[in-house]
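User: quick one - fold this with adenosine-5'-diphosphate bound?
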Amino acid sequence: MTEMVRKITLSRAVRIMQNLFPEEYNFYPRSWILPDEFQLFVAQVRMVKDGDPSWKPTFIVKPDSGCQGDGIYLIKDPSDIRLAGTLQSRPAVVQEYICKPLLIDKLKFDIRLYVLLKSLEPLEIYIAKDGLSRFCTEPYQEPHPRNLHHIFMHLTNYSLNIHSGNFVHSDSTSTGSKRTFSSILCRLSSKGVDIKKVWSDIISLVIKTVIALTPELRVFYQSDIPAGRPGPTCFQILGFDILLMKNLKPILLEVNANPSMRIEHEQELSPGVFENVPSLVDEEVKVAVIRDTLRLMDPFKKKRENHFPDIYMDRKHRFPPVSDRMSSLKLQLSKLSIVRSQQLGKPLASKEEPPDSDLASASAGGASPEGHLPSICLKQVFPKYAKQFNYLRLVDRMANLFIRFLGIKGTMKLGPTGFRTFIRNCKLSSGSLSMAAVDILYIDITRRWNSMTVVHQDSGLRPGSSFGPRCTPSPVAWLFLRSHGWTTTRLAGLRGAAQPLSARKPRKPRKLLWTRRCWKVPPYSGRKEPGYGLGNNGCLTAKGV
Ligand code: ADP
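Assistant: Sure. Structure tokens for the protein plus adenosine-5'-diphosphate:
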């Protein structure tokens, strides 16, 4: 998961969806991956500037592996990118900078929202009802060459702003440099903002983002766990960083796989002397997230009382006293294992899982052992709103196909045999498309695929280890079939190239060699065989036949 939400991988995953559903995925700023797409970035910016000379964009450069604002800088022109040395060794994403964020008290802020990915198959997503708003500590001005380096003005990272003299620790959840998101919504609501709409836009952003990320996750999961067998399944608490634009449109900044669950902050008592003090706002939000996660992930609902012993309960707040809460939470966090055993393939609305209404009654103090717990903070949004979003799960369906034809378990590479089986099962091979043509098609897709990703030694459609910044997710290989017009008609178009081969008995495809100009199948011993090359129309042709 950590790898899936790295800046480059996230950008790629969202971009695939942006290509398919541009309207639905316009919540993510246009991004380019560096160094690979540097020329593309330069060319596209130049093109837009030529068309509209009044366009004065700003871009934000973020190192792929960076976090907490590390290595981030703003630029006004592609030529300002610090290419020398660092980019090659430290790939990055360059992104359109959102110049008009919503300001509160003249300050830019972002939202950290906690999302529980409870299950991949079936997909279950929960969103915390409250989140954190992290404020900059210098009044915001639109980017200008003179203020681009003002990190306290442009970057909302807590880890940076805490070092500003203007950082305000507050005992209240609605003031200071870190507040609850609900307090912001309250304030917006008092100004007449339709906060229901804000929430529904945010929920939609979260669901769409998860839909973009899950196909590849499922391929990885499936390669490890045999299908249909009970096995460990995983859950993950994700931290979504969201920026509200001036017009209240939410923009996804990034997704954190390991969001900080600290509920205390460092305070400098006297110069050089620091102390950890409880942070009310962190507690308010994070304790509830952890509590509900434990509650939801406990498949047997056993020993629930032990999670939050009664002695901890403070009647007024239905919460333990702060100091006890701190130690109790630490204890629980230390016990919190991110990987839990759970039965695979449980029906979605399993009776064991409390639906929303059950949880609500528990929080209202029903007979359930949870009756004394505070109200629910994690709300299910998927499959609850599945109907509205299922049409976006196209890549997911491609991942299903990919997984189905993977062949040997443990592999993440669709080999030539799996590809043949796929063609056969889809009945594409009946009629005009011979198996030899299928092999050629396989070689072509592999060649195109590999030229898009890292150069691999061997053949195979890969899910792309997302572990490399240049790799792309597997289902994209399937997208090739669509995006390059690989319909049955087009497949039949390969016939001409394939016919001379079809006369021969199809053999097991062999390892591909990369020559300077094309992929070649090495000749069988002692026999002259044609190579394959690219024709003028970009289609694969058989040479020497
Ligand atoms: P990191 O993982 O290092 O925190 P982020 O992507 O969260 O990186 O970016 C850090 C901060 O930069 C964000 O919290 C936000 O304030 C600002 N930021 C990031 N991307 C954009 C953007 N496209 N437009 C405006 N501000 C941004």
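One thing worth noting: The chain is about 35% helix and 15% strand.
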